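Hey, resending since the last one bounced:
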Amino acid sequence: MTPRPAAGPLPLRALPVGEHGLLVELDRAEDAGALHAELLRRAAGGTLPAVREIVPAARTVFLDGLADPGALAAELPGWRVPPPAAGDRPAVEIPVRYDGPDLAEVAALWGVTAEEVVRLHAGTAFRVAFCGFAPGFGYLTGLPERLGVPRRATPRTRVPAGSIGLAGPYTGVYPRSSPGGWQLIGRTDAVLWDPRREPAALLAPGTPVRFVPVDAPVPAPRTGPSRPAPQESAR
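The structure tokens again:
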């Protein structure tokens, strides 16, 4: 899907929810991400009405705690919203051992070798589109549409914590052991969720992410400042 080249109004439907909520529906995941980033910018700059929570999803953004949701709903269609900036915050680097049980299957689906899967995946600049499924689980976008893969026909009853999987257009890292049907291509010791940490989640919507092979240099140069992911202590 061709990205929008410049700032402009977004096709959207803004629906008041209850007395203080507003659900904004968009046509594309990219537009949901752009609107979420714009809402955060305006909230930080004091130009957005007071809001308690802004929650992005695949093609929606939900705002809660608004004094007048209808007023913002009428205003949103006229906003000029730029695409999300690639270097607007530091990237989180997640070290990866690309040895997942589905690596060969993903290579076959992509029509490349396993080594090429590693090069393509680690060379992609990802961004957290939204979070869900489990605390600390981020849905990462960045891979081209042609590299989307289906979920497994039979989900696994247990996916180990730290497993890195692909499903549809998304990459995700399992923050804890759980059932799952994503195609697993690697694993990491990075701690995705720690309630003793502030913030508890390593990945938040809008965060840039890069995966770094632990046994090889990063195949693509960094495009901005980055910070390494926290590691689990030795077991």
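Residues 114 and 227 are 27 Å apart (CA to CA).

Sorry for the duplicate.
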